[in-house]
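Tokens for chain A. Residues wanted.
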């Protein structure tokens, strides 16, 4: 990771592939401040520039399971379709937790969450929240005849559980309702219609 130029952008480098991700800050509300020195605070210019990982970073990196190339293709296909929608068919992925289609909110669910875990060819993606997309919408995006991942096939598909295979890889999709905390009980919670204004 390093700062580009005089603080104009933050560069993140993926060492195995040498890919660069350039991040620039600008405020939608203050477009006149889109030029340096407004991008980053000056302390970002003092970031470590060496790729050496600390002990805690090495431990965290070592805990990440390996991923088969078929699973990489399947999950990359999912990421590429996170904003897909089929208005004529009434489905939308909506980043999993921001469903743009007009359907009832999941009142029984609390905070939004997304969790991905697995190993080699078998992966599970879990998510939930008030406006979470049903798993059937995600399965549809991955296997759609026009925009789906070539070769991906649905094994199961329901509102709360689905499974998609691509060659050797398997992705289980699960929609969960997260319990609402006591703080957000009926006395303290804003009405759902007010929260979306």
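Reply:
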């Amino acid at each position: 990771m390093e700062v580009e130029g005089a603080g104009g952008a933050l560069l993140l480098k993926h060492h195995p592939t040498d890919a660069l991700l350039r991040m620039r800050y600008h405020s939608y509300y203050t477009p006149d401040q889109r030029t340096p020195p407004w991008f980053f605070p000056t302390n970002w210019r003092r970031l470590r520039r060496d790729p050496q990982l600390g002990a805690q970073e090495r431990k965290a990196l070592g805990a990440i399971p390996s991923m088969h190339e078929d699973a990489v293709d399947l999950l990359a296909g999912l990421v590429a379709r996170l904003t897909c929608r089929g208005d004529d068919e009434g489905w939308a992925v909506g980043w999993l937790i921001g469903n743009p289609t007009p359907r009832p909110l999941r009142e029984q669910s609390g905070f939004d969450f997304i969790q991905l875990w697995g190993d080699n060819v078998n992966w599970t993606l879990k998510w939930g929240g008030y406006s979470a997309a049903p798993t059937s919408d995600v399965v549809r995006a991955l296997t759609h005849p026009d925009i789906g991942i070539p070769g991906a096939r649905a094994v199961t598909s329901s509102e709360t559980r689905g499974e998609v295979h691509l060659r050797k890889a398997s992705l289980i999709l699960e929609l969960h309702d997260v319990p609402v905390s006591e703080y957000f009980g009926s006395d303290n919670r804003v009405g759902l219609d007010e929260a979306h204004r």
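Residues 182-197 have pLDDT under 50 and may be disordered. The helical segments are 55-62, 69-80, 135-143, 192-195.
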